[in-house]
């Protein structure tokens, strides 16, 4: 006697396919939600890589006061800092200078200044540039002659300086 195997109906196949697609869509939604909401779950190394892609001033504004972990990532890092003070107000500069520049003079690799009011500030990087021993690039725009003369005499003491733009 010959046995005939009953074929699965198309409706069952369609149901199974629809169920698989629905599960896949739900899984994709869950993955997307995790990516969006779990920035803090990234490793410190990955966060440092992201920080390197951003202007350090923006990293400071966004993450310095966010929570203890990000504060420590910024403060206790050994990564080099590129400082661009071209479009910063004097009040924001004073806070940034106190929190980042002065305590991290040993980490600053490049410095860009163009704001005239910062040249007059006694705590401005222009007055303490000789303390930036790892400074490689210095870019100055709109600098007055009196500051330039002072600066040129101090730049000789910077062992890593390889680029100066005035």
Automatic annotation (TrEMBL):
Species of provenance: Adineta steineri
Taxonomic superkingdom: Eukaryota
Name of the molecule in the record: F-box domain-containing protein
């Amino acid at each position: 006697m010959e046995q005939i195997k009953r074929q699965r109906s198309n409706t069952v196949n369609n149901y199974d396919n629809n169920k698989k697609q629905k599960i896949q869509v739900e899984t994709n939604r869950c993955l997307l939600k995790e990516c969006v909401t779990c920035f803090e779950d990234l490793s410190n190394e990955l966060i440092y890589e992201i920080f390197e892609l951003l202007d350090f001033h923006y990293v400071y504004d966004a993450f310095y006061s966010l929570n203890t972990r990000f504060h420590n990532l910024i403060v206790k890092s050994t990564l080099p800092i590129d400082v661009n003070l071209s479009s910063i107000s004097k009040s924001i500069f004073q806070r940034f200078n106190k929190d980042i520049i002065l305590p991290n003079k040993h980490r600053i690799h490049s410095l860009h200044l163009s704001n005239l009011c910062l040249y007059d500030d006694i705590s401005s990087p222009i007055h303490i540039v000789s303390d930036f021993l790892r400074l490689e690039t210095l870019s100055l725009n709109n600098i007055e002659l009196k500051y330039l003369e002072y600066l040129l005499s101090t730049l000789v003491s910077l062992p890593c300086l390889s680029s100066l733009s005035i």
